[in-house]
Amino acid sequence: MTELLTAAQMRALEMAAIESGDVTGLELMERAGQGVVEAIFEEWPELMGRGTSPSRSPGYLEPDEKDPLRAVVLCGPGNNGGDGFVVARLLKERGWDVEVYLYGDAEKLPPDARVNFERWGKLGAICVPCEDGGFKYPIAGIVVDALFGTGLTRPISLGEGLFVDFNLLGDPGMSGGTKVVALDLPSGLCSDSGKTVGPALFADLTVSFHAQKLGCELGNGPERCGKTVVKDIGLERFGVIDHPHHSGSKTVGVTAHPWRGAVGKKRGSHKYANGHALVLSGGHGNTGAARLAARGALRIGAGLVTLGSPRSAMLENACNLTAVMLRQIDGALGLTELLEDARFNAICLGPGLGIRADTQAMVLTVLKENRPTILDADALTRFSAKPEVLFDVLHEDCVITPHGGEFARLFPDIAERLDAPATVGPAYSKVDATREAAKRAGCVVLFKGPDTVIAGPDGRCSINSAQYERAAPWLATAGAGDVLAGFIAGLMARGFAPMQAAETAAWLHVECARKFGPGLIAEDLAEQLPAVFRDLGL
Ligand SMILES: NC(=O)C1=CN([C@@H]2O[C@H](COP(=O)(O)OP(=O)(O)OC[C@H]3O[C@@H](n4cnc5c(N)ncnc54)[C@H](O)[C@@H]3O)[C@@H](O)[C@H]2O)[C@@H](O)CC1
Ligand SMILES: Nc1ncnc2c1ncn2[C@@H]1O[C@H](COP(=O)(O)OP(=O)(O)O)[C@@H](O)[C@H]1O
Ligand SMILES: [K+]
Questions:
Q1: CB–CB of 214/6 below 8 Å?
Q2: Which stretches within 122-246 are classed as H helix?
Q3: Which residue, 342, 310, 312, is CA-closest to 327?
Q4: H or E element in which residue 439 lies
Q5: Across the chain, what does the average pLDDT equal?
Q6: Could you please report the per-residue DSSP string of 317-364?
Q7: According to CATH, where is 3.40.1190.20 located in the chain?
Q8: Which positions fall inside the YjeF C-terminal domain (predicted)?
Q9: Tens digits of per-residue pLDDT, 21-51?
Q10: What is the pLDDT of residues 302-357, one digit of tens each?
Q11: pLDDT at res. 56
Q12: Strand 461-465 relative to strand 451-455: parallel, antiparallel, unpaired?
């Protein structure tokens, strides 16, 4: 689990470090600038060692052998701008041709930024942006975005020319291969929500200090950040404010190999020791979703999986099942009878279940049992008219897995707040929304998407990111969510706690999609689990 921080948490860390006497703000700023220069050379090693005149131009610049490398550094009015002055100085010291623009009043710079403004002043000039905010768009090796970082509170209004020039940079024909490096965050991106607060810049590389900010993983973050790297600035000792897996934790983590140790089966265990998952099927013609979930539950290691089917769909299900067992269930009454068998220790309902009157009765019957339960799709939609009926009976051993539409049906007020365009920073985020929903529902909520957010009613929260190098756009295919529900059910049958099951399943789900790659359909997902498990060394 890698921690992600909000702007407020980052500021608290910085304050704690400075107050401890370990480090000064100026030192942190210097390390931030050094980290950026390091990251530039790591990302584009061809720039290393160039720049000291006379130098060769990089391949993507005009083929003038005498041109030194060029950087345009755009500095804003706060400490993000201060970091920019450090980068400008360090590149200049390497022989680069550096132009620095200040967007703001030098007299009002905060103290550390002011010191670095003056240090830069000994090496070069400060350029004044054009009247329209543009920076004259020179062909440059690197454009450094040091306008705003975690301090963004409102839309950037530095002139339209700024964004016009950036649009030109986005056009490969015009940019001459210029790369944009954002310091901490691309300017205009909200650190906490990943929403754009008004117009925002696009970066090729975003260098975050100490830890990634939440906004890099949520919402528009990934498309704006390009690639992200994190550079230490000496705050490691102050790094853990609270742990993502502690109850009530305020910190959010990105899951990485979550609970790996628990995924393998214990040697010598028999099938009943691995639990018995029950998945409920829809009626005739609506059975595929539940079978996808059932197969997912079996592949992820539930000892036994039974599909509970209405009479109308028995034949259809029987023709399509082998290792998954089949039982006829006639309505909520039949379900009550089946659940007299206490060995069904995890129940999955919703995929393909339909939204008839009986669906509500089935959900209520299952929830009365207080067994580990995962509700998805129709089991959620059925309660759109009166979500509180569902919230009243959900309990701590439940996981609900809404996609955006289902989330809006159950939590319309929260969804409205989340979907509203951000006008101030930090803005309300998917993390805030999922935490609020989990608290209201009284169970774990897994809010799907490339930035899947998983929150518990106690405030624990993590993001399962299928972005950057973990991008898995092939998961946007019918039935992928049904398989995820089955994965969660299978893990809960094996004894995983709801939060642990949701995080592990979501992580494995993305791994399966990545393993298969383009062309993936939902049927392929569970079939990748053996290879994914092998890669984990299980
Ligand atoms: N917190 C830390 O530990 C460190 C922070 N550093 C840098 O400091 C940055 C945060 O600095 P600041 O808090 O000064 O904030 P920023 O530099 O991000 O923003 C500057 C100030 O501009 C004002 N502002 C906000 N939105 C505006 C807008 N749209 N138009 C005009 N003015 C606006 C705000 O008052 C804000 O404080 C970080 O992103 C990072 O780059 C680094 O120096 C290293 C250490
Ligand atoms: N672009 C994407 N990148 C990564 N994961 C995605 C993307 N789109 C959807 N997913 C994931 O795929 C699954 C789709 O689930 P869902 O919307 O319920 O579909 P269905 O109901 O058809 O099964 C979710 O786990 C979601 O997080
Ligand atoms: K920035």
A1: yes
A2: 160-170, 172-175, 221-225
A3: 310
A4: helix 430-441
A5: 91
A6: HHTT-SSSEEEE--HHHHHHHHTTSTTEEEEEE-TT---SHHHHHHHH
A7: 254-535
A8: 255-536
A9: 999 999 999 999 999 999 999 999 988 866 5
A10: 999 999 999 999 999 999 999 999 999 989 999 999 999 999 999 999 999 999 88
A11: 42
A12: antiparallel
CA angle at 391 for the pair 388 and 392, rounded to the nearest 5°: 85
Closest protein CA for atom 5 of ligand 1:
79
Higher pLDDT, 272 or 282: 282
Using one digit for the tens of pLDDT, what is the confidence trace for 191-227? Answer: 999 999 999 999 999 999 999 999 999 999 999 999 9
Using an 8 Å Cβ cutoff, are 147 and 156 in contact?
yes
Annotated binding site: 79-83, 145, 149-155, 184, 187, 289, 352, 403, 448-452, 481-482
Q: Cβ(148) to ligand 1 under 6 A? A: yes
Q: Is the model's pLDDT at 426 over the cut of 70?
A: yes
Work out whether the CA dihedral 83, 85, 88, 92 comes out positive or negative: negative
State which fold the 254-535 domain adopts: UDP-N-acetylmuramoyl-L-alanine:D-glutamate ligase (3.40.1190)
pLDDT at 357: 85
Top-tier CATH class for 2-241: alpha beta
What is the amino acid identity at position 408? Answer: A
Checking phi first, is residue 520 left (phi over 0); if not, alpha (psi -120 to 50) or beta? beta
Instruction: Give the ipTM of the model, two decimals please.
Output: 0.93
Q: How far is the CA of 152 from the centre of ligand 1 (A)?
A: 6
Give the tens place of pLDDT for each residue, 430-448. Answer: 999 999 999 999 999 999 9
CB 507 within 8 A of CB 423: no
520 CA distance to ligand 2 middle (Å): 12
* Alpha helix (H) residue ranges in 97-171: 111-121, 160-170
Single-letter amino acid code for the residue at 302: A
Does ligand 1 lie within 6 Å of residue 233's CB atom? yes
Backbone angles phi, psi at 25, to 5 degrees: -60, -35
- pTM for the structure as a whole: 0.94
Regarding the beta carbon of 196 and ligand 1, being less than 6 Å apart is answered no
User: Taking CA 279 as the corner, what is the angle to CA 537 and CA 461, rounded to the nearest 5 degrees?
Assistant: 60
Q: Ligand 2 pocket, 284 CB below 6 A?
A: no
Task: Determine the length of the chain.
Answer: 538
* 182 HSE (CA, 13 A, CB side): 31
Q: What's residue 137's pLDDT?
A: 64
Segments of the chain assigned to CATH 3.40.50.10260: 2-241
CA contacts within 13 A on the Cβ side of 437: 35
